[in-house]
Amino acid sequence: MILAGFIVTRLIEAAVTYNAGATTALYVDSVIAPLLPNMQEKGQFGDTDIRALDETLGQGALGERLMSFRLWDRDGRIIYSSDKELTGRRFPVNSKLRDAFDGTVVAQFERAEDPESQKEKSSGRPLLEIYNPIRQPWSGEVVAVSEFYEIAEGLERTLLRAQLWSLFAVVGLTLVFFVVLSAIVLRGSRMIDTQRLSLSARVAELSRLLSQNEALRLKARQASERVSALNESHLRRVGADLHDGPAQLIAFASLRLESPLLTEPTVEDARRDKEIQAIKTSLDDAMAEIRTISHGLVLPQVEAASLSDILKTAARAHQQRTNAPVALSLPAEDFELSSSEKTCIYRFAQETLNNGYRHGGGIDQRVAASIHNSELVIEVSDAGPGFATPPEPSHGLGLAGLQDRVESLGGQFSVDSSANGTIVRMSLSKKNSGLG
Fold first, then answer.
1. Cross-referenced SUPFAM superfamilies, in alphabetical order (predicted)?
2. Interior CA angle at 198 toward 193 and 204, to 5°?
3. To the nearest whole number, what is the mean pLDDT of the chain?
């Protein structure tokens, strides 16, 4: 902006100076033009011409405006000068004089630096130096150049005023740009700060989610390891139950088939019938145990069942197996569940009822389901003696397996046990529904 202001000021100064010089030159040219024919004929001015020039340039408006006046020829000789000591002297042709003989009006403000201008330079007043080409009226040829110094105090004020206005304009424009750019930068800075805070919050949230994902991944791996161990334990239990129960009874029946009571024809019918009945009883017992084991392994059809039907089925199966009553408290509305969630709920009710019967004596067993704020909560309780630490899973999935199954679906699992009884609780939210 400083450079622009300097350039604009110089352009204004040059334009004003040229216009002022051209106006003055035109006026002076009109005054001395009548004297040119005499100079053309004689090569110099006569006494009459010089007297006329002295009177014209020394009096009136020109006398007040002009400090000095000179006429030059092409050779650098001063034909006429208001300072008589310079008349007839020769000086080097400078660039300004050369440009004037080429037909250009040259005007300079406060630059009296030529050798012949020592008087003007020492005056200390603001001067406008003008070189004006003088042409023949009929041919337009430049025959002489007039050089004069105009007292330019008014021009100085005009230039100063123009410079000040240009300076004010540049400063005002600079301030406007500064204010606008400051507003843009301030707005951008605030936007960057807002985005930085938002980005920091996102990074913190992502870090928290990564930590949660890492914890969930570790938990899922541990759950997978526990499920594998529980499955192996469950298979060993099933194998032990088959070996110790039905297999022994069938082996006993197989040995009795080779008894002499069945092979000897001399054995009494009553004794033979008694032996056959014992074999039949052993086989019936084996079949009953096989059905009992199978009943615990086979999952009923719960995919199309509602929440209430699933809990009723689990409670009914438990009552048939143990003859222990189970109180049910079911919600009036249904809860949308996926197939894996329905399976989880059935296994949860089955296993917790079995644990309550096995470890709590089946005293006052209850199953209660409720829905609060789109969250399903199922509680299985009993009034047994409770336990300080969870019992080892000798049958079924066990509490650890149930916890892994529930949490794998995004649910919550908890156990509260005291001397007054035990409550096992699971919960599922609709936002997690369908993950299984």
1. ATPase domain of HSP90 chaperone/DNA topoisomerase II/histidine kinase
2. 125
3. 79
If we measure between CA atoms, which residue out of 366, 382, 375 comes closest to residue 419?
382
Q: Do 78 and 71 touch, CB atoms closer than 8 A? A: yes
Query: For residues 370-400, b (16+ Cβ closer than 10 Å) or e, as one string?
Result: eeeeebbbbbbbbbbebeeebeebeebbbbb
Q: Cα separation of 254 and 258, whole Å? A: 7
Beta-bridge partners for 133: 145
Spatial contact of 161 and 81, defined as CB atoms under 8 Å apart = no
Q: How far is CA 344 from the centre of its chain?
A: 43
Q: How far is CA 251 from CA 239, 254, 259, 271, 283, in A?
A: 16, 5, 13, 21, 9
Strands 375-382 and 421-429: antiparallel
Nearest to 163 by CA among 332, 331, 384, 7: 7
- DSSP assignment string, 54-107: HHHHHSHHHHHHEEEEEEE-TTSBEEEESSGGGTT-B----HHHHHHHTT--EE
Looking at domain 300-436, its CATH architecture is 2-Layer Sandwich (3.30)
Instruction: Name the residue with higher pLDDT: 299 or 371.
Output: 371
Residue pLDDT, tens place only, 304-363: 888 899 899 889 888 887 888 999 999 888 888 888 888 889 889 988 998 888 888 889
At 264, give phi and psi (nearest 5°): -80, 125
Tell me the domain boundaries of the chain.
2-151, 300-436
Q: Quick one: how far is CA 32 from the chain centroid?
A: 80
Q: Within 10 Å of residue 184's Cβ, how many Cβ atoms? A: 10
Is the CB of residue 16 less than 8 Å from the CB of residue 155?
A: yes
The encoded tokens of residue 186 equal 């301030």
Residue 365 bridge partners (DSSP):
326
State in words which class domain 2-151 has: alpha beta
Q: What is the pLDDT of residues 84-119, one digit of tens each?
A: 888 888 888 888 888 888 888 887 776 556 665 666
**Tens digits of residue pLDDT in 113-161:** 666 566 666 666 777 788 888 777 677 778 788 887 777 677 677 777 8
